[in-house]
Amino acid sequence: MVLASLPKTSTTKLSKKVFESRGHMKFFTCVEHSTSSGYLLTGGTDALLRVWFPHKTLSCIQELEGHVKPITHIMLNPKEKVFVSLSQDHHVRVWSEDILANILEEEQMCLKIH
């Protein structure tokens, strides 16, 4: 994955950072950016969500567990400060953007609806 910062003026150089899957990390399948916190969230074929601070380090700063199959989508809701992950395990998980923890699972959502 390459992160590129577009210049504000034509005289400013293009800035880029390259994030690579290393050894134990599998390939990224999806990515979402939080403008309020400045981090990237990536979903992988290894069922992990990873948190990155691209302007500080090229290394993953936290891995979030919860899925058991590859993650296919990540969607951020900045107003509610949550993000949702979807996986091939047929589960939907809701995560807190502030504490980076799973706060709601598909089963709990169904219970609330009934």
From TrEMBL:
InterPro entries listed in its UniProt record: Coatomer_complex_subunit, WD40/YVTN_repeat-like_dom_sf, WD40_repeat_dom_sf, WD40_rpt
Topology term for the membrane: Peripheral membrane protein
GO CC terms of this entry: COPI vesicle coat
Transmembrane intervals: none
UniProt repeat feature WD, residue ranges: 21-52, 64-96
Main location: membrane
Compartments (UniProt record): Cytoplasmic vesicle, COPI-coated vesicle membrane
Pfam families named among the record's database cross-references: WD40
Superkingdom of origin: Eukaryota
Keyword set, alphabetical order: Repeat, WD repeat
Example of a GO biological process term: intra-Golgi vesicle-mediated transport
Protein name: Uncharacterized protein
Native source organism of the sequence: Sander lucioperca (Pike-perch)
